Amino acid sequence: MKVLVIGGAGYIGSHVVKALRRAGHEPVVFDNLSSGQRRNLFPGVELIVGDIQKPEEIGAAFARGFDAAVHLAAFKAVGESMAEPEKYSVNNISGTINILNAAVAAGCLRLAFSSTAAVFGSPTYVPIDEAHPTVPENYYGFTKLEIERILGWYDRLKGLKYAALRYFNAAGYDPDGEILGLERNPQNLLPIIMEVASGWRDELQIFGDDYDTRDGTCIRDYVHVSDLADAHVKALERIERTGESLTVNLGSERGISVAEMLAVARRVTGRPIQARAVGRRAGDPAACYATSARARELLGWEATRSDVDTLVSSTWRVYGHYGPDGKEAAR
Ligand code: UDP
Asked: Catalytic annotation on 319?
């Protein structure tokens, strides 16, 4: 398939592009490079620089003719989404509407969409399956859930077949070491730990060590980005084969605590990694992890690289490219 990967220069998108190429598909990247980076581009893959907020730009891209698309272009900082919902409305929701209208107009009726475990809100039970209630607790999660609902209507009304892929905590880097772009201002646990290990940041603040978990710190489901990338390929191939839309959770099904992640990072990096428990962060559930039974059944998908050692070592290897004074080179 010829696949338009919208947001293909970003962290997850670059891994999706690589997975598509390895599976014999032809990805073309569409990205405005606001957080995506040229250094993430797979060699030989074309980049169309454009913005999903401009209907004419995304329209012109789709008009070139694609068999399928992957949509990963979104803002994803939870805290920012609560402070500046306007940005998230315009980019995530309106931007997606521009994409869907352009796709439908061009007859591209297969789409894999980056959704998130944030659509569930605080778990009422774990592991979380697809039937778990969807009550997002932040505006970011709301935008993704709203888009899932719009996708459902475009399926009914326009025949657009989609895969809503609800990622749990994406982590890790290409195990071949070919994707080297670091996120600017990372907000997530593992990149922050890596910044402390690299000497770019003084300490990790552990958001709460008094939770009712095995060591008092929060438990999350970290899933390797290359595993996530494979799911996009399998989802598009299934849509092509069956003509059916699907919504699936993508997690490793393993709950890892903050303290466990930190301990593995200290061992793998050989660095002390200063850490200090501070107060809980608002809105953090104690434990959140998936069952991926549906992804296994529908896609034949399994997280195969999501053990903590692989997550940490593949990430540390990328940080090693920048060195102690290399922080700016990464930005
Ligand atoms: N966390 C932490 N310190 C940080 C960043 C994250 O203790 O500087 C914890 C956070 O409370 C959560 C886990 O690490 O339990 C994963 O957080 P992240 O923001 O990466 O993802 P989330 O699960 O919130 O989507």
From this structure: no
